[in-house]
Amino acid sequence: MSRVAVVGGGTMGNGIAQVFAASGYDVALVEVSQERVDLALSNISKSLDRVVKKGAMDEAGKRATLGRVHGTTSLEDAAGADLVVEAVIESFPAKRDVFAALDRVCPPKAVFATNTSSISITELAATTQRAERFVGMHFMNPVPVMPLVEIIRGLATGDDTYATVAMTAKALGKTPVEVQDYPGFVSNRVLMPMINEAVYCLMEGVATREAIDQVMKLGMNHPLGPLALADLIGLDVCLAIMNVLHEGYSDSKYRPCPLLKKMVAAGRLGRKSGRGFYEYD
Which of 82, 108, 254, 261 could bond to 1 as cystine, CB 3.0-4.6 Å? Predict the structure, then answer.
């Protein structure tokens, strides 16, 4: 695979485009408007500046990486890609519509991958005509830094498809881990209930936000406390994943905390809105 398309240029999408381009792939980065394309490319440039500052890349490498990312507002520009990675909002209807459009413009040999953090790979694959060539490719945030990629097999995912995508993840310098298709996969089935329980602790007055995070950082050696991590991920994303877990397993242990729901309703989504469990400039 040498040509890749990334659909969605938000926090995850522009990070995914960056790591592919930095590894020598030509990348079509698709967004809904030129304004969002420009923002995604700007964010990639700023991210690469940090890489250069750390000495992991020189200015020539940065220019070459940016030169391999081609921003576009047309899904038809994904038609020449060997691999298409979808990274739009965590919504089944939104992802379904993207893949339906991609299925029409991409050749049958193209592999489709979704960066969903919780939605069923099997259900998304069933909306296309290439379920055997459909897989989950769940990167971690921040994509350029985190080494893990969960490779999730849908019910119909072919062995060749899995092997190709796992090999591609290794080519990016990532560590692929095989996971089966169940709600939340492994990462969010384990992580999100912990975050949700931390929100319950805050709601019930067990401890302050700082104390809850400090216990997990100092006591469990986590680099970031669960409430600060929720702010980084986005409280709306955390809530969406908890809803998928609750619906998928029909188990009350996955019930989203009322405080989490209230904060999302109030627009306090974390870092991206300037306020979540903490306040940000």
Answer: 82
